[in-house]
Write a structure and sequence with these properties.
about 325 residues, alpha/beta, Aminopeptidase, 8 strands, about 40% helix, about 15% strand, binds D-phenylalanine, binds zinc ion
Length: about 325
């Protein structure tokens, strides 16, 4: 869905004025990039769902899951990597060992931009062993992939350097993302201006939660949702429960979006967002019914567009 509210141009100017400073401090008022700054594209939810269909097929062909150390994980990684390679990204597979099995992170750099100011967006690509992991976390993985492909299609040339990541072994305790952060030199770590995390963004009974971390990143996501006229809440279900935590612990500004896991939607939340009160945001969380049927298209669409909005706005 495209933002087409009046005042769109003004909102874009505000976002382009947001600047993340290297070294972990919050954005000051940097000069606006000006009216020439490119607007973020609309991300096709059909394209995001097509990736989810592929991830479902991969799980089905590999014992029903895409878990760390299983064939379905590596096949998922190969699928994402092939798309990125064809789109002109520089991809790197980072290998690690956890619980006696080999795990993999996939890192994709978009050539260009100031490598002294790196904006990262990432998602965990592994599922639990009990299911295909389509909301958790095919949803974030597919939306970040489609955003990266949109960067390529637009031939986007941001001022900052863009890097996308798909993490392995999140479900074993944030293993892949922690391995990545620990493997960075102090200098490389300090050059990451911000890390945006997307873990479960198409929950079937969705809430609209924004991480309450770096103020500039949080403001960008809230601004997108304000433009849509959709209220958001601060994410409280999972503080420290996803891949932004290792970055945050290392002093990198972080933010992200979340549509809810096993917490139950309240009556007040159902009144403002629709859906069913008294029912979990995702009743198939970590279970075998987390399939392509376990996705709310509207939530996936809005969150995918919000990712692109933040990636464009924060890297300009
Ligand atoms: N980290 C998620 C998982 O993979 O199980 C769940 C989660 C994400 C929970 C964000 C809360 C907040
Ligand atoms: Zn999970």
């Amino acid at each position: 869905m495209k933002l087409s509210v009046p005042g769109r141009a003004a909102a874009t100017a505000v976002v382009t004025a947001v600047s993340l400073l290297a070294g972990g401090s919050i954005a000051g008022a940097a000069p606006a990039a000006g009216p020439t700054a490119a607007a973020a594209p609309d991300i096709s939810v059909a394209a995001v769902k097509a990736h989810l269909t592929q991830l479902q097929s991969i799980a089905t062909a590999n014992g029903g899951n895409r878990a760390h150390g299983r064939a379905g994980y590596k096949a998922s990684l190969d699928y994402v990597k092939a798309k990125l390679d064809a789109a002109g990204f520089t991809t790197t597979i980072q290998q690690f060992t956890s619980s006696g099995r080999t795990g993999y992170n996939l890192i994709a750099d978009w050539p260009g931009g100031d490598t002294g100011q790196v904006v990262m967006a990432g998602s965990h690509l592994d599922s639990v062993t009990s299911g295909a992991g389509i909301n958790d976390n095919g949803s974030g993985s597919a939306a970040v992939l489609e955003t990266a492909l949109a960067v390529s299609r637009a031939n986007f040339r941001p001022a900052k350097h863009l890097r996308f990541a798909w993490w392995g072994a999140e479900e074993l305790g944030l293993v892949g993302s922690r391995y990545y952060v620990n493997s960075l030199s102090t200098g490389d770590r300090s050059r990451i201006s911000g890390y945006l995390n997307f873990d479960m963004i198409g929950s079937p009974n969705p809430g609209y939660f924004v991480y309450d971390d770096d103020p500039a990143i949080e403001k960008t996501f809230k601004e997108y949702y304000t433009g849509l006229g959709v209220p958001t809440e601060i994410e409280t279900e999972g503080d420290g429960r996803s891949d932004h935590a290792p970055f945050k612990n290392a002093g990198v500004p972080v933010g992200g979006l979340f549509s809810g896991a096993d917490y139950v939607k309240t009556a007040a939340q159902a009144a403002k967002w629709g859906g069913t009160s008294g029912l979990a945001f995702d009743r198939c969380y970590h279970s075998s019914c987390d399939t392509t049927a376990n996705i709310n298209d509207t939530a996936l669409d809005r969150n995918s567009d919000a990712i692109a909005y933040a990636v464009w706005g924060l890297s300009a």
